[in-house]
Amino acid sequence: MTKPVVYIETTIPNFYHDLRSSEAVATRRAWTRMWWASAADKYDRLTSEIVVEELSAGTSKLVPLRLALLKDLPQIAVTVNVEDVARTYIHNKLMPAHPGGDAFHLALASYFDCDFIVTWNCRHLANPNKFAHIRELNRRLGLPTPEIVTPQQLVGRF
Q: 132-143 in b/e burial notation, b at 16+ Cβ within 10 A?
């Protein structure tokens, strides 16, 4: 039996290595690390060149640690078709034009038929108010729709 495919979005390595002490950050860091500890056994994990670019643009001393977390994961690339899908999301106001990365994360995971996007971006990606719109737009595009979840939602799921 094949493992579910999970697209790792930028917020996952960010929270894995976030050192801020607020309760909200500490909680997300704990859930992220708990999920990550067992994720390789349960999921085929992948990321994208967009995630690596977003992480590399950071100025924190933690950037190398965040990139190292993803170093052994396959990276899916942005293709012309993925660009078209991302533009469609932006044009239909499903995702904001800036930051455009959110549209690309969804387009990549949809186009490459991932089962899940794991993210802490609850404003633009893991937003329950957008799920029906995402499913409908992907249906029109002939694309599958990944479940968009936080690490907390995946802990103990499989």
A: eebeebbeebeb
